[in-house]
Give the backbone structure.
Amino acid sequence: MTIVPGIRPVGERAVLVELPGNATVRKLVRLVPQALGGVDEVVAGHDTVLISWEPGRTPPHDLVERLAALLAGPPSTTPVARLTVPVTYDGPDLQVVADACGVSPEEVVRRHLASEFEVGFLGFAPGFAYLLGGDQSLRPPRRAEPRDRVPAGALAIAGEYSAVYPTASPGGWNLIGRAHVSPFELERDPPALFRTGMQIHFTEAT
Amino acid sequence: MNRRPPLLAAGSLARLVEVVDPGARTTIQDLGRPGFAHLGIPPSGAADQASCTLANRLVGNAEGAPVLETTLRGPVLRFAAPVTVALAGADVEALADGRPMAMRAPFRIRQGGELHVGIATRGLRTYIAIRGGIDAPLVFGSASSDQLTGLGPPQLRAGDTLDLGRHALASPAVDVAPVVALTSETTLHVVPGPREDWFAPDAVTALLSRAFIVGGQVDRIGARLRGPTLMHRTAEELRSEGVVRGAIQVPPSGDPILLLADHPTTGGYPVIAVLVEADQSRAGQLRPGDTVRFRLRAAPAVEPRSEHFS
């Protein structure tokens, strides 16, 4: 199947590439930095990729053809990284999520543990990863009233996303547990634990 | 002068700049940390990059040397050694040891001297470049203070001391630099999109024909604008997507927000238009109460073939 991406101009030196879904987003962001010259940002969204060129440069004339060729070609040969994240499922919103999804809190935990996730994209805060691919039955809405402060490390779910808050911040997602990882640490190399395209699995902390 | 800082022996690492009064909100800025948006890290850097680089050129620094960026009211600084300073950006009354100093022209301050930077009369942010540049630790390649994420050094506080860096090049080559004066009414040029089709049919026309007033909430992240309401076409929610500096993002309320240097890397509100590069620095000088008009700049000269536009 040939994918012809939609291209929307973003100012003078960036474009927004519209794609059929996050799987093609994950494929494209791994290929673009090597395939296109003079690019300074490649930012994944849920079903878009923002490509920005360095100041003074503009997108190439044949961008659509080149992106279509990348999408039709083989995926990046760099292996996809896998990460297991230990979690204590004791979040204050477990019951709320259970009620919203029509199951018991124990079943919420069981289904979350049984799911495989992919990092769909990062945003909101440094190291904040939107994890996709969780159990179809766990799709609670965001909280009506966001919290003023969600602690760092909180494991949260909302809609089709799961995430681990990298730093304490306001937040409207449902807190179901505490992840025993630090998603963003300046002193670590690399500082961001999660990268777009990584495969994530949660395990119960012991 | 009983509060004069101790003078250190030659060869020791003197803390050359003492912050007597930090002003309203004064931060260290350079040209920011582009290239890390995929990790959720904003570009940050001087809100008015043109004035930051001009101030640096005037004192003979590398263009991207760390400078001080004020917000409306500037700081009082005391220097433990003679320094060369230049001011650019928002016009202020500045006194070096009580004597008024011109904008956009380098001047010397003696050992033990003080610089008072007053309240901006036009524009919002004045750039204080000191020959050598401010010495500050680099985070993702930049000394910039990021208001959204807290990356980089915190804003200045009274009693802080700063070192100078090694960003001096040749002696200053420019004595006085003329610039276009900042005024309280400005026109900024935009490229429509990427999401102009998410808006009611008259929204783009309203954006390009009516005046907007800069609201009271202006920070380094963005400037809220008041004017004609730019209604969304549907109640549909946009899924998060990458955004750029200079994007005009419109929440469902219809009141646009112009994104500045410390903008979040992704957003869930449709962007109706994006500022052209040449007007980004001017946008960093918008102050509450200013009038802004947006004018169309044709889409980029180099663009994808039109039949592929969706």
Q: What stands out?
A: The two ends of chain A are 46 Å apart (CA to CA). The mean pLDDT of chain A is 95. Helices of chain A lie at 22-35, 63-72, 94-101, 105-114.
